[in-house]
Design a protein that fits this description.
about 35% helix; single chain; globular; about 100 residues
């Protein structure tokens, strides 16, 4: 499995450029508590790679701390989707860097 570990700053820059889909694989209740603006919730418990956007934008996964996002990368690659990037420290790392979240 090929994986790129992205920092919060790298993900923020990519989001601001509008060139990515940030897929949050945390559960609904976690997403409702705090989320990154522009992210889309697709919980790992019900995740199917075939439901990922296929419009040419890069897919970057995220979760709370980087474990579930790795599972999502593995599932996407097994499905034949070219996705290898995740927010390595998850939303916890994002918050620790002082970056904004939405309630």
């Amino acid at each position: 499995m090929s994986v790129r570990n992205l920092t919060p700053a790298e993900v923020q820059t990519a989001l601001e450029s509008g060139q990515i889909h940030l897929i949050d694989v945390r559960e609904d209740y976690e997403f409702e508590q705090a989320r990154i603006a522009g992210s889309v919730n697709q919980p790992l418990s019900t995740f199917h790679p075939g439901e990922l956007p296929q419009d040419g934008k890069e897919i970057i996964f995220m979760c709370a701390g980087g474990v579930r996002s790795l599972r999502a990368i593995e599932a996407a690659q097994a499905f034949g989707i070219n996705a290898d990037a995740h927010l390595a420290p998850g939303i916890r790392g994002w918050i620790a860097e002082g970056l904004p979240v939405e309630p």
